[in-house]
Design brief:
The protein is α/β, with parallel strands linked by helices. It has 21 helices and twelve strands. The radius of gyration is 27 Å and the shape is globular.
Length: 625
C-alpha cells in the first residue's frame, strides 16, 4: 500500500514537472514581442503643448518621451468628441460607415462580420490586455467579449504572468472639458492669464484669459501624472521593452474646438517613445519629428503591426510603425478625414478633409449655427460669456461667426491661417484647390458610405444595430442623397430642376434632403415654396414635414409652429422627438427668433423621457441656461 501511494505521488510530481517544462518550452518558442502602453488624455489639441507651440504648456515628461522617440506633427482624431473618436480607435474603422458616430449612442451597433476590437487580437496572440479605465465605445456590449483581461479603475499590467507581453491603456481625465466648469481665481493659477495668446475667434476678456491659463495649468498636472507612470515602468524594469504612446482622444477644449470638425477640434498631439531594443521596428531615428498625416483609424493597425499580428482586412487604417513602414512612404501621407454629427442633444452634420496644407469644411446643414445650444458645452463660463457678448453686439466679424449661419463649404490654408478664420472658397485664386477638395470629400462620403445621410431615428428603427450591413444595403441610396445635398454648391438656377425632382421623389429621404438643400439656398428657393408648404402640411414622413416647416420658418414664408407642434404630438419616439426639437431650438435661437407655443407638448409620450430629449425639454421649457 505504501509503495503504491509513493508511486502515485511520484507520478503526480512528474506530471507537474512535465507541464511546467512544456509551458516554459512553449513560451521559449513564442516570438518575443514588445510591450505597448497608451497614455491617453482628453481634449488636447496641439496648441496646448509647448512641444508643438512655443506658447504652450511646459510638459517635461512628454518632452522626454519625444526626445527618446517620435513626435508626429500631424495626427488627427477622426471625431472631435470622445465616444466616436474612441470607437474609431478601438475598431480601426471610420465609424460613419458603422453607425457608431453619434455621441451619445442611442443604439449600440455591431462591428462588421469577422472584425473584433483590436485588443482581442493581441490577447489571442498571448498579450495581457488591460484598460484603466474609460471605454466609451458606441458598440454593443457583446462586442467587448474577450477583449480585455482587465478593464476597470484597478486594471494593471502587473497582474500578467511572468514574462508575458502586455498592452496597457492608462486614461487620464485631468484635461477633460468638465475640469473647466468650476471657477479657479487667477491667484490660484500658475500660468499668468495676461501671458496667454488667444485664438482669433475668441473675445479677449478676463474670463477667456482665465480659462486659457487654467487649461495650461491642467496640462502641467497631466504631465506630472504621466511622469509618475513612466517612473513606475522604470521601477519595474520595463522601459527598455515598452513602446509608450501619448495622445489626446480629440482636440479641445475652449469654446469652438471640441465638438467641431475643424483643426482645433481634431488636430491632436501624438508622441511615441521608442525603446532602444525595438528601434528596428521604427523607420526614423529616435528624436525625429514626422510630418506625414496620421489618423485615428491608424492606431489599431499600428499596434497590431508592432506586435507582429496580421491586420484584419475590415480595418480602414494603415500602420505607421512596425515592419513594412518606411519613412519615405509615411511622410507622403497627406490626408485626414473628420466628422461632426450629433453631440448629446445637439444635431449637426459637418465633414472635414485635410489634404496637404489645405483644410475643407462641408456643412450639409449650413443654416445651423455652431453656437446652437448644447447643455454640456454651456456649463463652461467662457461659452456663456461668448454667447452673451454676441447678443449684445460686442463681437467682431470673426468672433460672431460662431453664432451665425455658415457657408456650405469653406477652404483654409493652414500655413497662413492655422485657426481657419479666412475662408478661401470664393477666392478665384484657389478655385482649382476647392474643386479638388470638394471632389475628394464627395468620393469619401459616398464610398464609406456615410450613414449620416440617413436621419438617426430612421437608422435606429430600420438597422437593428447592424450599421455596416445597413450602410452596404443602402449605398446607392446614400449616393443619391449626397448628390441632392451637393446641389447646395451650385447656383440655384442650375440646381432648380434637380430639386424639383427630389421634392417629388417617392423616396422620403430624397424629399428630406431636397428640402434641406432649399433651406441652404434660403429665399432663393422661393419658386419651390408652395411645393414645400404642401409637404409641410401632409407628407407621410414626420421628418420631411419637420424640414419643410424649418424651411418656412428660416425663410419667413410661413408659420412653422402649428406644423412642428402637430408632428411632435404625433411622434412616439424620443430619438425622433429630439431631432425635431433641434429644429425648434434653431428657429427660436437663430436668426428667425420665432416664438412657438410649446405648452401642448406637455402631454406628448416622449415629454418625460430621459437622455437627450430631456435636455431639450429642460431648455425649451425654461429650466436650462
Amino acid at each position: 500500500m505504501m509503495s503504491r501511494s509513493i508511486l502515485r505521488i511520484a507520478a503526480c510530481f512528474l506530471a507537474v514537472v512535465v507541464a511546467v517544462f512544456n509551458e516554459h518550452l512553449l513560451a521559449d518558442q513564442q516570438p518575443e514581442r514588445p510591450n505597448i502602453v497608451w497614455l491617453t488624455s482628453e481634449d488636447n489639441a496641439i496648441f496646448w503643448y509647448r512641444l508643438y507651440n512655443p506658447d504652450g504648456a511646459p510638459m517635461p515628461n512628454v518632452e522626454r518621451l519625444a526626445k527618446e522617440g517620435l513626435v508626429f506633427n500631424n495626427c488627427y482624431s477622426c471625431a472631435p468628441v470622445c465616444s466616436p473618436a474612441r470607437s474609431t480607435i478601438i475598431s480601426g474603422c471610420y465609424v460613419p460607415r458603422l453607425g457608431a458616430h453619434w455621441h451619445r449612442k442611442i443604439l449600440p451597433v455591431t462591428l462588421p462580420a469577422g472584425l473584433h476590437m483590436f485588443p482581442w487580437y493581441l490577447r489571442q496572440a498571448g498579450y495581457y490586455t488591460t484598460n484603466n479605465h474609460k471605454e466609451d465605445y458606441n458598440f454593443a456590449a457583446s462586442e467587448k467579449a474577450d477583449v480585455w483581461d482587465e478593464s476597470s479603475p484597478r486594471a494593471t499590467y502587473r497582474n500578467r504572468k511572468p514574462g508575458q507581453p502586455f498592452f496597457h491603456v492608462q486614461n487620464y481625465t485631468t484635461t477633460h472639458e468638465s475640469q473647466l466648469f468650476p471657477e479657479r481665481p487667477n491667484d490660484q493659477l500658475i500660468t499668468d492669464p495676461k501671458s496667454v495668446k488667444l485664438f482669433p475667434y475668441h473675445p479677449d476678456t478676463p474670463i477667456f484669459r482665465n480659462k486659457y491659463a487654467h487649461y495650461f495649468d491642467l496640462h502641467r498636472q497631466l504631465d506630472a501624472q504621466i511622469g509618475t507612470f513612466i517612473s513606475q515602468l522604470e521601477a519595474d524594469g520595463l522601459l527598455d521593452d515598452t513602446f509608450i504612446f501619448h495622445f489626446g482622444d480629440n482636440g479641445g477644449v475652449l469654446p469652438g474646438s471640441k465638438q467641431y470638425a475643424r483643426e482645433d477640434g481634431l488636430h491632436v498631439a501624438l508622441v511615441v517613445y521608442v525603446p532602444r531594443k525595438w528601434q528596428h521596428l521604427v523607420s526614423a531615428p529616435r528624436g525625429s519629428r514626422i510630418n506625414g498625416v496620421i489618423e485615428f483609424v491608424d492606431l489599431a493597425p499600428t499596434v497590431l503591426n508592432l506586435a507582429g499580428i496580421p491586420i484584419p482586412p475590415q480595418m480602414d487604417g494603415r500602420p505607421f510603425l512596425g515592419p513594412g513602414v518606411t519613412l519615405e512612404e509615411l511622410d507622403q501621407r497627406d490626408t485626414a478625414f473628420g466628422h461632426a454629427d450629433r453631440f448629446d442633444e445637439k444635431y449637426d452634420m459637418v465633414r472635414f478633409l485635410r489634404k496637404g496644407r489645405f483644410t475643407y469644411w462641408r456643412s450639409y446643414q449650413p443654416f445651423n449655427f455652431d453656437g446652437l445650444y448644447n447643455e454640456y458645452r454651456y456649463k463652461q463660463a467662457a461659452y456663456r460669456e461668448w454667447r452673451d457678448l454676441y447678443e449684445k453686439g460686442q463681437l467682431n466679424d470673426t468672433q460672431k461667426a460662431f453664432f451665425e449661419p455658415r457657408p456650405p463649404e469653406c477652404l483654409f490654408d493652414l500655413e497662413k491661417d492655422p485657426h481657419e478664420t479666412h475662408n478661401l472658397a470664393n477666392d478665384p485664386a484657389y478655385a482649382d484647390v476647392l474643386v479638388t477638395m470638394r471632389r475628394l470629400l464627395q468620393e469619401r462620403v459616398k464610398n464609406l458610405p456615410d450613414l449620416s445621410f440617413i436621419p438617426e431615428p430612421i437608422f435606429i428603427k430600420e438597422s437593428g444595430g447592424d450599421g455596416f450591413g445597413y450602410a452596404s444595403k443602402h449605398k446607392a441610396r446614400i449616393a443619391r442623397l449626397v448628390d441632392i445635398a451637393d446641389l447646395q454648391l451650385l447656383p440655384f438656377e442650375e440646381a432648380y430642376p434637380s430639386l424639383q425632382q427630389a421634392l417629388a421623389s417617392d423616396d422620403p429621404l430624397e424629399r428630406y434632403w431636397g428640402i434641406i438643400t432649399c433651406s441652404a439656398f434660403g429665399k432663393k428657393a422661393m419658386p419651390l415654396a408652395e411645393k414645400i408648404r404642401r409637404l409641410a402640411e401632409s407628407d407621410e414622413c414626420p421628418f420631411v414635414r419637420t424640414r419643410a416647416a424649418e424651411f418656412l420658418g428660416l425663410t419667413g414664408l410661413g408659420d412653422p409652429g402649428p406644423i412642428l407642434i402637430d408632428v411632435l404630438k404625433k411622434i412616439d419616439d424620443p430619438a425622433g422627438a429630439n431631432l425635431i426639437l433641434n429644429t425648434v431650438v434653431l428657429l427660436r435661437d437663430g436668426a428667425p427668433r420665432l416664438q412657438i407655443d410649446l405648452s401642448p407638448l406637455r402631454d406628448a409620450s416622449w415629454f418625460t423621457a430621459s437622455g437627450e430629449v430631456s435636455r431639450r425639454v429642460n431648455y425649451l421649457f425654461g429650466q436650462g441656461q
